[in-house]
Amino acid sequence: MSIFTHITLGTRDLERATSFYDTILAPLGLKRLVNVPGRASAWGLDQPSLVVLYPINGKAATASNGVTVGLQAESRDMVDEVHRLALEAGATDEGAPGPRPVAKGAYAAYIRDHDGHKVCIGCRTGE
């Protein structure tokens, strides 16, 4: 069981954000489960877990410094593929795919989405 119920990311352009996350989440097996036009979109396996939305308080969305959303991939090849798709979809590279010293067999890539949110795509291969 995860300790999180969901994560939300604010956006300044919901249509662009929805298209971006549709592109990078599909290879990870996540599908869009919620689409509230002009308000929010959400992805997950069987329940909404990652939500992209216009901030409810009506203020501009901003990215937090030091926050990273980590997404689980099944393999190094999948990390590489999602990183490639993210860059093609307009993300900024924040760390090319490769081994990471945080844990044995850790392999990850980092990007920033169009709204400046830092996203990690990673796996632990046990190597």
Verbal overview:
With 127 residues, this protein is an alpha/beta fold. Helices cover 20% and strands 36% of the residues. It has two helices and eight strands; from the N terminus they run βαββββαβββ. It has a four-stranded mixed β-sheet, covered by helices on one side. α1 (14-25) runs antiparallel to α2. The longest helix has 13 residues, at 76-88. The radius of gyration is 14 Å and the shape is globular. It starts with 6 loop residues before the first strand and ends with a strand. The relative contact order is 0.21.
Percent of residues in helices comes to 10-25%
Question: Helix count?
Answer: 2
Average pLDDT taken over every residue: 94
- Separation, N- and C-terminal Cα atoms: 25 Å
What strand order characterises the main sheet? Answer: 1-4-3-2
Q: Which percent range describes the beta-strand content?
A: 35-45%
Low-pLDDT regions: none
Order of helices and strands: EHEEEEHEEE
Largest sheet: 4 strands, mixed
| Alpha-beta classification | alpha/beta
SSE map:
Elements: E1 7-10, H1 14-25, E2 31-36, E3 40-44, E4 50-53, E5 68-72, H2 76-88, E6 92-99, E7 106-112, E8 118-124
Parallel strand pairs: 1-4, 5-8
Antiparallel strand pairs: 2-3, 3-4, 6-7, 7-8
Helix pairs in contact: 1-2
What would the keywords be for this entry?
single chain; 127 residues; alpha/beta; four-stranded mixed beta sheet; 2 helices; globular
